[in-house]
Design a protein that fits this description.
The model has no long low-confidence stretch (mean pLDDT about 95). Helix content is about 50%, strand content about 15%. It has one domain: UDP-N-acetylmuramoyl-L-alanine:D-glutamate ligase (3-Layer(aba) Sandwich). By secondary structure, it is of the alpha/beta class. The two termini are about 15 Å apart. The radius of gyration is 17 Å and the shape is globular.
Length: about 270
């Protein structure tokens, strides 16, 4: 699909999300549950934060999409993540992987690699996370320079790793930062917008990954859906930043702007990659 077509379809993807109100099953981390659920609600999706081993498989059977975030790991949560990912794979349910802090510990790397084997539809991470994940997938990529869960690399450094990871896994891959980069390994786009305050509010990246899952439930083309999710956050972030006094007021303003987004706000944020 040409990039111009992707930009043109971003707005209709948002309208489809709001019309469908997809039930988005999120296995999130403790830090991100609140802002993630509220971001999904603001956009028009229906969030469900479900991670108990005893019910994740059953809940995947009810959901329209799944998002898995490895931010605060424990053995029971890892088991639940794997069960949910397998259930999604069996159902053909779209799901997103957010490999928070991959590269920091062996446990985190092993968990991320096991989830990769369950074939996520889309992967969203910061530049360092995408570079590390590409190497875990066996793709040729430079080593990332992370600091805990923070990226030590610019998004531009991760573009080739993102392409390689997409080709290795079959997933659409988004590396996010000052400028976002999204690719399916063949076509790619950059998303511009957002605001400098976004990195100062915890878990907005986590919320974005779950938002991508909601868009996947409403838009059948995974590349278009992921680009639309990134564009939604870029547009809302730019508007929120124009009125915010600091991180606290920005968080509230972002939720308001996600709710107020018009479909026409998304396309200008998506730029073709030659």
């Amino acid at each position: 699909m040409a990039q111009s077509a992707v930009a043109a379809q971003a707005g209709p993807a948002l309208a489809a999300l709001r019309a469908r109100r997809p039930l988005t099953h999120v296995i999130a981390n403790y830090v991100s549950m609140d802002v993630t659920a509220n971001a999904l609600l603001a956009l028009g999706a229906s969030p469900a934060m479900v991670h108990a081993i005893e019910e994740v498989e059953a809940f995947v059977g009810l959901a329209d999409a799944l998002s898995i975030n490895v931010g605060t790991l424990s053995k029971p949560w890892v088991e639940a993540m794997l069960l949910a990912a397998e259930a999604a794979q069996d159902r053909g349910l779209p799901w997103t992987l957010d490999p928070v802090g991959v590269g920091a510990t062996r446990f985190r790397d092993e968990t991320s690699a096991a989830l990769l084997a369950r074939r996520p539809t889309a992967i969203r991470g910061n530049a360092t996370e995408i570079m590390v994940l590409a190497r875990l997938a066996g793709a040729h990529a430079p080593a990332g320079r992370g600091k805990g869960v923070d990226s030590g690399n610019a998004t531009s450094e991760a573009e080739e790793a993102a392409r390689a990871l997409a080709l290795a896994t079959g997933a659409v891959v988004a590396a996010t930062g000052d400028v976002d980069f999204v690719t399916d390994g063949r076509v790619a786009a950059r998303i511009v917008g957002g605001h400098a305050l976004m990195p100062q509010v915890t878990a907005l990246g986590c919320a974005l990954s779950a938002t991508a899952a909601a868009f996947l439930a409403a838009e059948g083309d995974a590349f278009t859906a992921t680009a639309a999710a990134l564009a939604a956050f870029a547009a809302a972030g730019a508007k929120a930043g124009a009125q915010a006094r600091g991180p606290g007021s920005f968080r509230l303003a972002l939720l308001d702007e996600l709710a107020a987004l018009a479909p026409g706000d998304l396309a200008p944020r998506i730029e073709a990659v030659p």
